[in-house]
Amino acid sequence: MGRVKMGAVVSLDGFIARDDDTVGPLFDWFGNGDAEWRWSPRQDEPCRTTLASKYFVQSVYPNIGAVVIGRRLFDLTDGWGGVPPAGEHVFVVTHTPPAGWKHTDTAPFTFVTGGVAAAIEQAQELAGPDRIVDVAAGQIGGQALRLGLIEQIVLHVVPVVFGSGRPFFGGAGTGDPITLGNPSRIVQGDRVTHLLYDVA
Amino acid sequence: MGRVKMGAVVSLDGFIARDDDTVGPLFDWFGNGDAEWRWSPRQDEPCRTTLASKYFVQSVYPNIGAVVIGRRLFDLTDGWGGVPPAGEHVFVVTHTPPAGWKHTDTAPFTFVTGGVAAAIEQAQELAGPDRIVDVAAGQIGGQALRLGLIEQIVLHVVPVVFGSGRPFFGGAGTGDPITLGNPSRIVQGDRVTHLLYDVA
């Protein structure tokens, strides 16, 4: 089955967006360097980062098969107009599939009403054994981590403090502490520090 | 004036303690290595960490003059029995000084009712130009950061996820994002990653 990773760009105080869903300077590092690359061949404008950031992202995400997101991100992006931001298929965890989304019949998007575990299972089947399943951080990723479904956590930590916002581990809830391994990689870019953790 | 640093041991999701004020495995790295050192000459049992962690802490905190904490930490520790955990004086930010603390007349502790800025000012006067003022993270540290009073932020990040608890930047409140520099140092210990940021 595809390896399940949870990742996002995050402020130093742990937020993937501000309360109003803006991201402040979180994505500045996608445009402050000379090394060009794309998350997906469908991406028009390339990212331009430091070489260190490019190598980190490309080695951690060599081949994304499917993406699992929550309803909030779907609504915020309008499902990226029906084009997956990476991988070939997007699984959206939602209680109620959107009525009348104009790309419903044509886009490689599946709305999963059975919860995050069901969505990850479908994503793994689609990704197959050799490709990655990328689970968005936040409510969905936190729930998946608490359920033991995440194998690796990727944080792109930006040196900014928001004070409040939407937590990277938002869905982890309460309970016993979740133990991770020491970070297996730490890479410094410009306005971003990349951290890679295996879940113990 | 003494350099003002804000620091703490923190979970990967940004908490310096759990909701019940326990710290889970946050302090494990103080005892999992061979390199002995002490925060203060008054500390009975030394820390035993990796050499990397020892060097990091000793170089970032070469000489603490005074410590600024909030009332919660004071109450949780009963003011460490009147003995500062580091430095020679502790300034406690509180609305109401404790009645009947048995060390009030003898301990080098000052209860500051004028807020965090007043406490840091007094701490800097005591520390003088060559020593550090160490401000506890959490409510007090976050407030001081928002007020522009923190020069350097030190995070000892432990690879554990709590899900909820007491935030490292708890007092930062809402408002504009607070921009930091790229981390000037990143040091990996065992069960801890040390990050040092200068405030921009």
Automatic annotation (TrEMBL), chains A, B:
InterPro entries from the UniProt entry: DHFR-like_dom_sf (IPR024072), RibDG_C (IPR002734), Riboflavin_Biosynth_HTPR (IPR050765)
Gene3D superfamilies: Dihydrofolate Reductase, subunit A
Domain Bacterial bifunctional deaminase-reductase C-terminal: 6-174
SUPFAM superfamilies: Dihydrofolate reductase-like
TM stretches of this protein: none
Record-given protein name: Dihydrofolate reductase family protein
Record lineage: Bacteria, Bacillati, Actinomycetota, Actinomycetes, Micromonosporales
